[in-house]
Amino acid sequence: MIGPSPTGTDSARLDPNGLIKGGAIPGASGYPSLAPLLRQVTPAVVNITVDSRIPREEHPFLNDPDFRHFLDRMGLPIPEIPPIERRHSQGSGFIVDSARGYVMTNEHLLKGATRIQVTLKDQRSFEARRLGADSGSDLAILQIPPVAIRPLPLGDSDRLEVGDFVVAIGNPFGLGQTATLGIVSALGRSGVGGSRLGKLIQTDASINPGNSGGPLVNLAGEVVGINTALIGPTGGNVGIGFAVPSNRARAALRALTGQGEPRP
Predict the structure, then answer these.
(1) pLDDT tens across 201-215, in order?
(2) What does the pLDDT look like over 132-156, one tens digit per residue?
(3) Please, what are the domains in the chain?
(4) How far is CA 179 from CA 114, 116, 176, in A?
(5) Of residues 52, 89, 108, 134, which has the active-site annotation?
(6) Which residue in 53, 88, 236, 243 has the fewest CB atoms around it within 10 Å?
(7) Residue 212 annotated to the active site
(8) 138 flagged as catalytic
(9) pLDDT average, residue stretch 177-204
(10) Per annotation, catalytic residue among 52, 92, 157, 212
């Protein structure tokens, strides 16, 4: 039986000044470390596996009269391509309300989903159901059974400044939970993924395929962004990643669930 779920947020926050001044929050070795921060944050970060059925786009050659004529002359049949493509994809998310089992992730990860599985850091897995999505912010809310894990608090993204330290946590390439450190490289970036995503946070913390939906946290352990996109010549990280600001995530959470964050 699952006990009462901690929903407070104040005790999840660390003193960022202690980390910056060096030594106030040492790791096991006695040197300045982000390990104390990650010990509090990472249990609420989840891996998400999605089985989906996506309508397949017909290859343009199949509608080309010259190509069809060529096949006919050669006595070759026109290839039959199944109209539906089955996909198995992986991404990330994080718990925003453990008592209600709410998990926030990216909406694009769930496209055509027929099965969604959420796996916690301790390897427990749950079938999740989609409560709703906001395509304008590329955010979605899933629900799993209540868990006794401290949810991640949403910080105030309007207080971010270029140069602030941030940590991206997620499941890149399906490798498992991974944390990368960087800074806020720019604010208010637009035109990424078309204009529909609005203004985003740019960071050089490594964001790779599979990080989608994972949190971008500040040194106080607050989510200041939700990782959603990257720019790279091969779809890999080149130091330019983007996250949806947490204040937009807070508005989406309220709109999709009719409730805000759990109170301390």
Answers:
(1) 999 998 888 888 999
(2) 998 888 899 999 999 999 999 999 9
(3) 10-50+87-257 (2.40.10.120)
(4) 29, 23, 10
(5) 108
(6) 88
(7) yes
(8) yes
(9) 85
(10) 212
